[in-house]
Amino acid sequence: MPKKILIVDDEPQIAMLLNARLRASGYEVLAAYDAIQGFRLAVQSAPDLILLDLRMPAGGGAGMFENLKNNLQTALIPVIFITAYANDDVEKACRESGAADVIRKPFEVDEVLRKIRRVLKEPDPPGGATSPPR
Amino acid sequence: MDRVLVVDDEEGLRSLLGAFLRRAGYTVETADTASRARALVGASSFDAVVCDIVLPDESGVALMDEIRRRYPLVPVIMMTGMPTVETAAAAVRAGAFDYLAKPVERETFLRTVRNAIRLKRLEEERRALAEQIQQHVRELEQKVQERTQELRASEARYRRLFETARDGLLILDGETGKVLDVNPSLTSMLGRPRESLLGRPFWEIPLFRLSALPRTLLTEALREGRVSCEELTVTGADGHHVDVEFLCHAYEADGRPVIWGNVRDVTARNAVVNQLRHHNEMQARFIAEASHEIRTPLTIVLEAMRQALDGLAGPLTPEQRTLLDMAYQGAERLRVVVNDLLDVSKLEAGRAALRREAVDLADLIREIERLFAARVRAKGLTLKVESEPASIPISIDRSRIHQVLTNLVSNALKFTSSGSITVRARDRGREVECEVADTGVGIAETDLPKVFSRYLQFGEPWTGPEGGTGLGLAIAKSLVELHGGRIRVQSALGKGTTFTFTLPRLGADEALSDRIEAILVELRRPGRELVLTLVRIETEMARETLYGALQKEAERQGYAAVRGGRGLAIFQDADPFRLGETAEGLKRLVRTFFFEQSVEAKRAIRYEVGMAVFPRDGSYAADLVGRAEADLESERTSRLTRRVLIVDDDPVVVSTLTEFLQQLGYLNVVSARDGVEGMARIQEALPALILLDMRMPRMNGYEFIGRLKHSARTATIPLLIITAYEVEPDKLDEESGATVFPLLKKPFGPEDIERWVRFLI
């Protein structure tokens, strides 16, 4: 059964492109464009992993993260933050608060896939995400 | 031959005396009357005149008077037939050399004439000498006058310089610190009339905002001959601030020390520097933000095209694929450009921190070989990779050195159309050397210096067939320097180019460098500077605990502090114009800390302190640590060569103290047996510290302290009282106006001396 990934990002293009790439890589993908919708989907569909944009309108990624961690149904779902405003400190703070990983924007899709596989403890496909840069 | 005139109306006597004289070798003229004698005297010169007191026409005295008036040197000997005391006395009073009584006895007569002439000769010589002396005096006076005129001209010149100099000028008495003169520039800078400044000790004048500085400045100027302070602020009477540089020289005038101070207004210069700095920061920030804004949509463009190319949106016709490929390549190039710009702006703004890790450089270059293999093959070139030895472990930021190598190899690939590219790494012990050599077009010698420039566009179009920003080499240079390394280039047109860079092994303290790097990124503010104080504890016992305690203490006082392998770095954000003050504050903190710790631990703690200023001493942590370490070493040397004076009448104490000090490495220890001798030692050269006994013969410690405090030159020399008795505060107060001095009770141990000396110097 394919692993289920929830993407929460207020930039629809990013969400769409990730959606397409993750589906092509064999995942089942759900997408939400704000924190409220994202939290509802997380509770309803119990994904295996959440890709969460840190800065979004309506409560933002950090607020949604709080809610996820305070909810029994969602507390154990690994969360990878995606953020355009990261520096080492932000990254450290995210990790310390319980994020599984942090991806800085703009990202390479290969990097996202690699990190997802690591969090889900899946092996890298041969010649896949570690293929040399184009 | 001496000529003698004999005047007498007695024919017989005349010829007799003439005969006496001629026979004695004189030339003789005779006259029988005063008028004839006068005629003879007028016609030629005589060496002596012998004259009867009674002459037929006139008195001999009158004749003598006239002769003596006209020829003051010619001695006249009077002869008289009736020698009485009165006439004799009258004759001598009237100026006769002598008088002879008739009948004149030959021997007496000749002796008298001889004496008279000898006297005349002596007098002539005396006068000649006097004249010579006069002449010399006149010449000297002439010279003095000339020199005076020259001096006056020179004085006028200097006065004019002094009066019209744009710098504020200040002349101080080195003994008292009183203002001897100020020029108009300074008075207008201070907004105070000259009269209100003259004669006052200069620390009483609100000249510097720093109140502690001026007195030590004076002492230091006298000791070092020259002192400069770069960052001072002068406050005018109306409250406006002027940034100044202060430089002073000490010299001697009429045996007194005089200090010449030069106050330069650098407000305008500072404003320009700040503006430039601000401008650069704004520019760097703008580029960083703009690049970021561009990269996000670019990621979308690239990913969208890639998904289309990967067939995720359905099959493509060959024409569609070709077009999409072109678009993808173009967007990819754009991504490289934006990344380069972002890197450069980060590096320039000093916002790049290194994340060092253990890396095998041989592995890294093999990775580069794999990365470029396909592209090198596609151009028909060969790529060789050599490593010597086969494994080169070093602590570097892997991704950044990867980028350096990528940039250099990309560059080589771009300008090489046949032959080979070689990447070599060599372990040289303290550093690792890496080179990228190609057999390409080469670079003209005149263009070589421009290679690493951010703004280059020379000769052949730099962007070449594969695009790029031309920033790759500038970035490579910055990244290598960020690691504390160097990069250089050698090239021959048509033969090829070799880039060589080095990466130093930082040793044990790269941990510190890295933490400093991280803190720099955090702490830097536009227009501000950071003072970095590096503290190294050299005592091994409880070192880690001490570092921990010092770090805690620094942080408690509001400083940022980081620990490394070989030291602790304390930071303070500083106003660039008050750096000196900030540095002093930090030093005081460290000194006080170790003093207290050593009291508590009942043993001496050895430590050294060095400082560096960011970004003045370098923009990278490795530079700063290097600079602070160099400063630390030079501080140690200068501390140990400072003069220490021991004043104690007990030779055992003196030799014990001297030995302790020499064991601590102090090279310049002198001693005195009492206050009087102590003052003499101070006159020879100002000491940096005085260890003082209180009970001494001749001049005791109280009086000695009083004398020291009396002169501005010596008032600030640190003192340590070493005594076996209680110190009487009243007596101290009476002598020096102060009651609190560092005090060490006898008996003392070497650790006490070390603790105090370290605290006071």
Topology:
The complex is a heterodimer of chains A (134) and B (761).
Chain A: E1 4-8, H1 12-24, E2 28-32, H2 35-45, E3 49-53, H3 60-69, E4 79-83, H4 88-96, E5 101-104, H5 109-119
Helix pairs in contact in A: 2-3
Chain B: E1 3-7, H1 11-23, E2 27-31, H2 34-43, E3 48-52, H3 60-70, E4 76-80, H4 85-93, E5 98-101, H5 106-164, E6 168-173, E7 179-182, H6 184-190, H7 213-224, E8 226-235, E9 241-253, E10 256-265, H8 267-309, H9 318-348, E11 357-360, H10 361-378, E12 382-388, E13 393-396, H11 398-414, E14 420-427, E15 431-438, H12 472-482, E16 487-492, E17 496-504, H13 510-523, E18 529-537, H14 543-556, E19 560-563, E20 568-574, H15 579-601, E21 607-614, H16 621-640, E22 643-647, H17 651-663, E23 668-672, H18 675-684, E24 689-692, H19 701-710, E25 719-723, H20 729-736, E26 743-745, H21 750-760
Quick synopsis:
The complex is a heterodimer of chains A (134) and B (761). Chain A is built from five helices and five strands; from the N terminus they run βαβαβαβαβα.
Number of helical elements of chain B: 21
Strand line-up across the major sheet of chain B: 2-1-3-4-5
Question: Could you tell me the strand content of chain A as a percent range?
Answer: 15-25%
Helix content of chain A: 40-55%
Structural class of chain B: alpha/beta
Structural class of chain A: alpha/beta
Strand portion of chain B: 15-25%
Note poorly predicted spans of chain A.
128-134
Structure write-up:
The complex is a heterodimer of chains A (134) and B (761). With 134 residues, chain A is α/β, with parallel strands linked by helices. Chain A has five helices and five strands, in the order E-H-E-H-E-H-E-H-E-H. Chain A has helices at residues 12-24, 35-45, 60-69, 88-96, 109-119; strands spanning 4-8, 28-32, 49-53, 79-83, 101-104. In chain A, strands 2-1-3-4-5 form a five-stranded parallel β-sheet, sandwiched between helices. Chain A is globular, with a radius of gyration of 14 Å. Chain B is of the alpha/beta class and 761 residues long. In chain B, helix 9 (318-348) packs across helix 12, helix 13 packs across helix 16 (621-640) and helix 18 runs parallel beside helix 19 (701-710). Residues 456-467 of chain B have low confidence and may be disordered. The interface between A and B is medium-sized, with 19 and 20 residues.
